[in-house]
Specification:
The complex is a heterodimer of chains A (158) and B (510).
Chain A (H helix, E strand, L loop, with lengths): L1 E2 L6 H10 L12 E11 L2 E10 L10 H4 L5 E6 L9 H11 L5 E6 L6 H10 L6 E2 L8 H15 L1
Parallel strand pairs in A: 1-4, 4-5, 5-6
Antiparallel strand pairs in A: 2-3
Chain B lengths: L3 H8 L4 E7 L4 E4 L12 H4 L6 H4 L6 E11 L2 E11 L3 E8 L1 H65 L4 H31 L8 E4 H16 L4 E7 L6 E4 L1 H17 L4 E13 L2 E10 L17 H4 L10 H11 L4 E6 L3 E12 L12 H8 L7 E6 L3 H14 L2 E6 L2 H10 L4 E5 L7 H9 L4 H4 L3 E5 L4 H10 L3 E4 L4 H12 L1
Parallel strand pairs in B: 7-9, 13-14, 13-15, 15-16, 16-17
Antiparallel strand pairs in B: 1-2, 1-5, 3-4, 4-5, 6-8, 8-12, 9-10, 10-12, 11-12
Helix pairs in contact in B: 4-5, 5-9, 6-7, 7-9, 10-16, 12-13
The chains are: A alpha/beta (158), B alpha/beta (510).
Bound molecules: guanosine-5'-diphosphate and magnesium ion.
Chain lengths: 158, 510
């Protein structure tokens, strides 16, 4: 399941991962889109990722309980170019961890193409943010790596 | 008329599909209303969403509803609510097509999210612009600071050159050089002032001071500047304005002289005038109007805004020498004081600049520490004996020399020696005992702060310890600090407040 504020690029990350495409146009997600991709995690070993793209809410707290059922892993995405999407990141992550203890969680800073590397690191440090991955759905940077990492986590987990 | 059953058929049934699957996910039955789902299919192959059927086996409630699920099946897209109900040995799926409903929600959410994101981006953009502006100002400040050192060398060398053997043509060239140096120095200082104001580095320092004597100092200065020219200078102030007020004396002086210099620049003949009137007095606040008017060339209406903008004047073609940044400094300083400058002008007749400031003034004597005459002040600190002190005045500017000389003589406390060249100071100090040195910082040849350093490094105690009071027209805090670091005991800024000056001298004598 992919979580995060609206407009951070959740849908775009999935589209990059599943279809290897990207659009600059912003199409708000309503409800939930589900897509699937099989990921090789080792020789002769693959994991089938069923990815739930939820409509971005302003409040993590509001995520419907139904969606949490059967969630094996969470990707939490923020947008490095919009402070409002990561200002309360650590609080949001705690809520997610409370709702789904034991569930592997990957923290992703997206739209890396909009920042300068050094400045980005300073920005993250200033806000006390530790991201597992910095991605760009636009350039595809680290997108596959991130999802593959998640798949391996799930594989080890199940 | 259609029956209710028919209506139900028409409006509900067509939008609701029932599917029954077994616990392995195999489709047992489907009424195939809008999704192509057939018995025998594995439900998770129809769409990956349905893989979630497995999780309802784990719930206690035995049923769960998913809202807004996008289902693309056999090339057709629907947005649905899906209920899953655990019936023990099979599961019932109730799929409700709400595509229209969700599509209209999507439009609303689209508009809402876009506008939120846009307004966030606008805020960010503004922050970035401010950041750039700050960077620009810091850059300019540092840059002009860097320029000051080479400029000081140029000025010193020009002064040396002037004293060497020159023919008429050469000495004319040196005169031009000196003029350009002076102009460049002014510009640099103006640019520094502006960038300090803009970057918020300039802080007003409020102190009680004598407003009337400040006005008289201005009258003296501009009286002598206009002497022998076809321009008359007039000072006129309301007798009811308080003598002592609290404010930043140096900055008020800077504002008034910038306006007056500007008036002088654009006036060929007639008069320039400074008028101070009283708007109102209330409790311990007084509102004053300052007005500087001239009989100069005037300003076209469409330019009355632009003249206060930094650097616009610099772009003007055929500008007058030195028509630099004075007015934008005025605007900036008044901004810091919470005030604004206005201009009235008539082409060919003249202009008038005016502003109002509200200042605090001392109601009772106790809070007017400075309201003592020089004699009284000195009597307080003066040792019993009638000893006179020896003062060395190091100053090259004749007007300042005169002012300082007269002030010091009036107290009848000092013998005064005068040196007008930095290079001669050391020699004079070695050969004569002084109780205190008044040291101009902007001296030709060797600057005053460097002489101070040399004196402080002297091997003889009596010389190395002589109190030195710096005298400067610089008003930048960092400069003051630097002078003190070089070993000055105190720094007094031009224009002088005579009491402040005397106090500094008396203090240094202990
Ligand atoms: N520059 C850039 N833009 C992106 C990136 N990812 C998404 N976007 C844009 O951000 C907007 C929101 O993306 P979307 O995937 O719909 O965000 P969601 O609401 O989190 O699903 C769209 O206009 C995308 O084109 C990225 O990595 N770089
Ligand atoms: Mg989306």
């Amino acid at each position: 399941m992919i979580l995060g504020h609206f407009g951070v690029g959740k849908t775009s990350l999935i589209r990059r991962f599943v279809e290897n495409s990207f659009s600059d146009k912003y199409q708000v997600t309503i409800g939930v889109h589900i897509s699937k991709k099989v990921v090789e995690v080792g020789p002769e070993e693959s994991v089938s990722l069923i990815i739930w793209d939820l409509e971005g809410t302003d409040e993590v707290q509001m995520i419907r309980q139904a969606y949490l059922l059967g969630t094996h892993g969470v990707v939490f995405v923020f947008d490095i170019s919009r402070p409002s999407t990561f200002q309360d990141l650590n609080r949001d992550l705690r809520i997610v961890a409370d709702k789904m203890p034991e569930t592997p969680l990957v923290v992703v800073g997206n739209k890396k193409d909009l920042a300068i590397e050094d400045e980005l690191q300073i920005l993250l440090d200033d806000n006390d943010i530790k991201a597992d991955y910095l991605t760009s759905a636009k350039t595809g940077d680290d997108v596959n790596e991130m999802f593959t990492h998640l798949a391996m986590l799930l594989n080890g987990h199940s | 008329m259609a029956t209710l059953k028919q209506y139900r058929e028409q409006y509900i049934s067509r939008n609701v599909q029932f599917v029954v699957i077994d616990l392995d996910g195999r489709v047992l039955e489907s009424d195939r209303v809008f999704l192509a789902i057939n018995p025998g299919d594995f439900i998770y192959d129809v769409h990956p969403f349905f893989a979630s059927y497995a999780s309802i086996l784990e719930t206690k409630e035995g049923s769960v509803t998913y809202n807004g699920v996008h289902l693309g099946v056999a090339g057709q897209n629907f947005i649905t609510d899906v209920g899953m109900i655990n019936k023990g040995n099979h599961i019932l799926l109730v799929i409700n097509d709400l595509t229209e409903h969700y599509t209209s929600l999507q439009k609303i959410a689209q508009a809402r999210n876009e506008s939120i994101i846009n307004s966030e981006l606008v805020v960010l953009k503004n922050l970035e612009l401010e950041e750039r502006e700050r960077f620009k100002n810091t850059f300019i400040r540092n840059f002009s600071h860097e320029l000051r050192n080479p400029l000081t060398s140029i000025v010193s060398i020009t002064n040396l050159l002037e004293k060497s053997q020159l023919d008429r043509e050469q000495s004319q060239m040196v005169d031009f050089l000196k003029e350009s140096n002076a102009h460049l120095k002014l510009l640099l200082e103006d640019i520094m002032s502006i960038s300090m104001i803009a970057s918020g580095k300039l802080i007003l320092r409020h102190k009680v001071f004598n407003l009337i004597s400040l006005l008289e100092l201005i009258a003296f200065t501009y009286g002598s500047k206009t002497k022998g020219t076809p321009i008359r200078f007039d000072l006129d102030y309301d007798r009811r304005i308080p003598e002592y007020i609290e404010g930043d004396r140096i900055r008020i002086f800077q504002i008034l002289t910038n306006l007056l210099d500007n008036a002088l620049k654009f006036t060929e003949e007639g008069s320039i005038a400074l008028k101070v009137s009283l708007n109102q007095k209330r409790a311990n606040k007084v509102s004053l109007r300052f007005e500087v008017s001239d009989t100069g060339i005037g300003i076209p209406l469409e330019k009355t805004k632009a003249i206060f903008e930094s650097f616009t004047q610099l772009e003007e073609e055929g500008k007058k020498e030195g028509a630099g940044l004075g007015l934008s400094i005025v605007k900036g300083l008044l901004g810091l004081m919470g005030s604004e400058v206005y201009v009235r002008s008539e082409l060919g007749k003249g202009s008038s600049f005016y502003f109002d400031v509200t200042l605090t003034y001392a109601l009772d004597l106790a809070s007017k520490p400075l309201k003592k005459n020089k004699k009284e002040l000195l009597d307080l600190r003066k040792p019993k004996s009638n000893k006179k002190y020896r003062v060395l005045l190091v100053e090259d500017d004749e007007r300042t020399q005169m002012v300082l000389f007269k002030t010091l003589m009036d107290t009848d406390m000092f013998y005064i020696d005068l040196v007008n060249d930095g290079a001669l100071v050391l020699e004079t100090v070695i050969n004569n005992p002084y109780d205190v040195i008044l040291m101009d910082v902007d001296l030709p040849n060797v600057p005053g702060d460097q002489i101070t350093r040399l004196i402080r490094d002297f091997p003889f105690k009596d010389i190395k310890k002589i109190p030195i009071i710096g005298v400067t027209a610089n008003v930048f805090e960092e400069d003051m600090d630097a002078y003190l670091k070089m070993g000055m005991n105190a720094v007094v800024t031009k224009p002088f407040d005579f009491n402040e000056l005397l106090e500094a001298i008396v203090k240094s004598l202990r």
